[in-house]
Amino acid sequence: MRHLTINFFLLCMICLLSACHPAVSPEAPDTPAPAASHTSLPTPTEPAPSPTPLPSPTAVPIILEAVVWETDPVIPILNYHRFTPNLWDETSGMVRYLGDLQADLQSFYNSGYTLISLDDLLNGNIHVPEGRRPLILTIDDAYFANQFALDEHGDVSRFSAVGAIYQFSLNHPDFGFELAMFANFGDKYYGNRFTGDWWYVEDGWQQALAETIAWGMEHHVYPYNHTYTHPPLDQLADDQIQPQLAQNDERLREYLAMAGHPEYASLLSNYVALPYGKYPAWEKGRQLLTAYQNPEGQPVRAIFAAGYEYAPAFAQPSFADGFDPMRLPRMAAIPSVLKLVNDEAQNFPSAQTCSLTLPTGSPDLKAITEAITKSIADGLCPEGVYVLEEGVFLAREGSVEPFIPGE
User: Fold this and answer.
1) Quick one: CA torsion of 387, 121, 144, 336, rounded to 10 degrees?
2) Beta strand ranges found along 70-187 (DSSP E)
3) pTM of the model
4) Higher model confidence: residue 203 or residue 11?
């Protein structure tokens, strides 16, 4: 009986242990483990396609616009002096009503004239709009306030000649705005107060003059040498000719310094206008005149006469045969001369334009010369003088050459 009890107890324990442990699933068949890899081999891939080359940029030709003079232009240089309101003084070669000046400007414009500078004349840069003609305006015996003055706001005064010309140019941009003032700084005061209808001198006139000169140079109104005290050079001792020019230049530079712009002196060309249109009487005096150098060391580049009321003479461009910079004619702006200048305008050459095509590259002298040659050969442009921003070119008798002023 005791053996039965023990056996029963063992059987119960076996059942209890079987219930506490999960059943073991049948053993899966053996699966070989992957072999250890000692060297990784690259996966074969297709070679990368070569990049598609970008198209080469298309060469863009350069187009230059040239002013062309098939015939050398004729250039009137007019010489004004003083101006007055339309109240007194008979208008003449020395005094011109401001109202008459405004009528002069309108007649010049209607006749097809455009203003150029003295530098343009000497450099051959006769650049005016198509169909128009060059004209140069000068004012002698500067500076008087009726010629050129600023108002209380620092703008050019409408009661001065320069103010009238400036306003006209604003209304007619193709007329341009270029003026030459031939000054005598040793024989006059400058009216710096406008009262009623005239200019009067008061304290501070030197500073007012200095600021007027500087404003002018900033707006294409340039001062040049008319001697210090306006003596007739044919009656002046030879050894006084250069001092007259030197004193005038020195005073001008003092005014530029007063205006705070001494550096403006570097912008000035060395041009001389003869008082009364008179050359020195003797050869030595003429040599001293042409040998004068300004404070910057520049020799006289041009000498301008005056007068020609009864035998009008027109200037040539510097690229014309026979051009003489030491004997340039000017005409007094009197009614008979002004009428002649306007009546003759239609007989004077006017500017043409022509487009030049440069295949590639920069517009250097060689490329421009080749473009002009080709345009003429193709019948697109005429022979003549070509004026561009890059320079002046003479296309004559089958050849094209750059123009070098003074040579």
Assistant:
1) -100
2) 77-80, 82-84, 95-97, 113-115, 133-142, 179-183
3) 0.84
4) 203
